[in-house]
Amino acid sequence: MVEYRIDRRSGVATYLQIVQQTKQALRMGLLEPGDRLPTAREVVEATAVNPNTVLKAYRELEREGLVEARRGLGTFVRATLGTGPADSPLRGELTDWARRARAAGLEREDVAALFTSVLKEHFEGDE
What's the number of domains the chain is made of? Predict the structure, then answer.
């Protein structure tokens, strides 16, 4: 099951953080079709966000066809994203790179900016 981490200083709306983290879990193979997402109550207890925020995120995921709400049962994954499993060899390489970046004194924001610029360079026009 996915555990949401809300960064109130990120400038990203809370419901979007939930959507993004769910999509990330789908891409990494941590969530698969048939898996149940945490209930709104469980997310509220773990993150102290408004229940309507959680429901808004789940409605967005449902609108995108990734999950479906089943009355009285919960919200379940309908589709997955990506093809890369969580245990991909590339993950190990990226982990090593992140360690080197941190050892070199880069801050999280520096690493994110560097990674984003490389993504743009290599995946321009794929969006």
Answer: 2
Mean pLDDT of all residues in 68-82: 91
Q: Compute the average pLDDT of residues 109-120.
A: 88
Q: Of the ranges 8-12, 56-60, 83-87, which one carries the lowest mean pLDDT score?
A: 83-87
Do 18 and 71 share a structural domain? yes
Please state the three-class secondary structure of the chain as a single string: CCCCCCCCCCCCCHHHHHHHHHHHHHHCCCCCCCCECCCHHHHHHHHCCCHHHHHHHHHHHHHCCCEEEECCCEEEECCCCCCCCCCCHHHHHHHHHHHHHHHCCCCHHHHHHHHHHHHHHHHCCCC
pTM over 0.85: no
User: Is the same domain home to 20 and 59?
Assistant: yes
Domain that residue 48 falls in = 14-77
Same domain, 65 and 18: yes
